[in-house]
Amino acid sequence: MTFHEGSLLVGREKEQKFLLSLLNKKNPLSTCLVISGPPGCGKSSLISSTFKVLEESYGMLWVLVSCLESFVGTQGVCGSTPSRYLLELILQSIKCRYLPTSDVCVRCDDTSSFVDNLCQILLTIAAERNNGPISIGLIFEQAEKLCDGESLVLPLIVGLGSIVNEKLCYTNSLDTPVLFTVLVTRLPWEKFNFGTFYFEPYVIPIESYSREQLTRLLLSLSPAGASESRFKRFVDLLLTVCFPVCRNAGELIHLMNINWRAFDEPVTKGLVAPDDEWGQWKLAQPFLKRSLATLYLRHYADASVDSVSPKNATRQDFLELPYITRFLLIAAFIASYNPVHLIKNFCLR
């Protein structure tokens, strides 16, 4: 089956076609795929767009699981370890999406009960749908967090598809479901040093966007009513200033949204002619450079253009620190009052 170019993700058409060729069968090429790439290269958008196409075209089922949710702040919650919380989160996510009214068990005390309950859930889904064999993908976002769990968690997730599929083969079900996992991570697979796995997953590296890809991506997000030629000049100006230091698509889209008004307002107010490229560049350049100086900081104090003008700059001379960083700074300040000999003794331990 071929897919229309318009249904593919802008800037990631090649990678999406390759993923579709791997997964558009009832039995995927591998029971575990690893999608790795730097932040802002479109991994999450690529996965969600691809699986939506597969769901519409082939009826493939898929569930998104956040590893960050499982391994941050779950220690001691309801007596669960992060690893156990992850396993129960997998079962709960599948049940909530495809068996919301069922009473299947989503609790597990160990990996054996987890595999048994997962097989039971998959068989229940296949029985309710009753339209031939089904494939279901478990997508693990921020999979590098799996390294923070117990030593057997990552090998279990990597080999989960083969373990479950082998167990399902011994059932008397006519339409045996097929399970596979997808790990989405910003780290290369070589960083997952957990010894020898039962088998190595199929790794698909995703590179950062090129300038041509980012141009097409930003142009596809043009505001309603924007002049096509003027917006194209704005995107070219934005990438000229920001692309050498930032290829993160999310940040560039944010910069586009907050700076387009600064580029367009002088034209709408009659300060410069629509075809005066130099005049538009001269008026917009200070705003772009100021945005570049605060890259990744995301100031939301005032969305208007006037709020970033020099006369109002004093209102924005602050920096919102991350939650944990505040406590680290407070702890460092308190520790600065410790006597020198105590610090020396502590460092020599």
In short:
The protein is α/β, with parallel strands linked by helices and 349 residues long. It is built from 13 helices and 5 strands. It folds into 2 domains: 5-205, P-loop containing nucleotide triphosphate hydrolases (Rossmann fold, 3-Layer(aba) Sandwich); 226-305, no CATH class.
| Strand elements, count | 5
CATH fold annotation of the largest domain: Rossmann fold
Report the CATH architecture of the largest domain: 3-Layer(aba) Sandwich
Relevant CATH superfamily of the largest domain: P-loop containing nucleotide triphosphate hydrolases
Computed Rg: 25 Å
Low-confidence stretches: 74-79, 301-315
The helix/strand class is alpha/beta
Total helical segments: 13
User: Helicity, in percent?
Assistant: 40-55%
Please list the strands of the largest sheet in the order they lie side by side. 2-3-4-1-5
